[in-house]
Amino acid sequence: MNIYALMENTPYSQKFAAEHGLSLYIETGRHKILFDTGQRGAFADNASILGIDLENADMLVLSHGHYDHGGGIRRFLEINDHAPVYLSVNAFGAYYHGVKKYIGIDPSLEENDRVVKVEDFLEIGEGLMLCSCNGKECSCPVDDAGLTEKRDGIFLPDLFLHEQYLVIQEHGKKTVISGCSHKGILNIMEWLHPDVLVGGFHFMGQEISEEGNAALDYAAEVLLGYETEYYTCHCTGEAQYRYLKEKMGDKLHYLASGQKIMLD
Length: 264
What we know:
The protein is an alpha/beta fold. It has 6 helices and 18 strands. The strands form 3 sheets. It has a 7-stranded mixed sheet. A 7-stranded mixed sheet has the order 9-10-13-14-15-16-17, with helices on one face. It has a 4-stranded antiparallel sheet with strand order 7-6-11-12, with no helix packed on it.
């Protein structure tokens, strides 16, 4: 399996665009999957530099309904004329950072005939599954980090019911792709037990301080308890990644914009 970071906060080299967002291109033995699209359309420019033809993508999977993951959907639809767009049935909610900044995706996309709304579980191909894990118990508290959803005119904490995970079964291994792990990376690991996990850990708001370090120490301890290889990016935070790397060593890697990884 090959995974290319088409968009991430930091560039692997200066020839690649970078922005606060995420887009991955995944090649399995059977499928070509675009996972998220970053804020705008620059993911497609990076794809061209990498020699990736997005017209050949079989599908687009959206991890959740935030602009930094779904802002480039329309450009993908212009490039690719056939791939379905799999997103949560809750993806078109009114999502905000606080009460002023709208961070949702373009609501006009909801009527596009290539959009497929996913409930809690859907097989989208041989060895490919989407699941939200909505309704599963969260052993670790979920931090909404000031993110909200406007429902019936009232701003309420985001419950992240619009987040879903891509599970890939190939060569006897389970790989889980997560956009931001808003429901808690430790909860996701408990639910899915992957051999490989790729995605953000959403620790960027965790201060590097005595209290913050204690929380990161606990996360590292729990993550190391699994026989899992981790590739993280985007919302983990650069300082937080460096701190975790010291604890987790070769079990943890960073995935930057323009970078390619190959998994057995």
